[in-house]
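If you are new to this repository, start here. Below is one unmodified record pulled from the training split, so you can see the exact layout before writing a loader.
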Amino acid sequence: MADSDTSDPSGTEASGIPYAGIATTDDVVGAVKNASSQIHDFAGVPGKASEPGPGVKECEGRGKDSFQVYHPWNFMPYAGTDNNIAMANFKEKLSRGGWVLKDSYFDNSPNKNLNLIADNDSRKLSVWIVGYNRNDVPSIGIEVVSACYQVPEGQTVDHY
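And here is the target side for that same chain:
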């Protein structure tokens, strides 16, 4: 979602999160769920995903009729050694099909976790993936986030 306009049509400055237009919260929540499901498939190894679903929050600086959808979840491969395979699969698959891998780096934590950040500009989505390989129980943290939207006139933001 890089290089997008950071102001809504009224010119109000936002927090740097791109403005994507007008949509209902249900539509954007559905899009984020679909992207999370696709990313789950990208792992390419058997495992279990955590249960909590997407959340909705107001976009800072855009008013109460604006919102962004976020979906943090965790993926635990059944075999801990599959974490590296899943991360390699994410890195490969987040470089095609509308996804663009924007960054890949090892963080400065003692475990030097691999972080992947990718955008899908056509879907107005971003994902941040962190491989926790050196934990007692290896897992992968994933967060899919949308751009900022404004609800249609006369509607309110539905918070999940």
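Two things worth knowing about this chain: The chain has one domain: 19-150. The helical segments are 25-42, 82-93.
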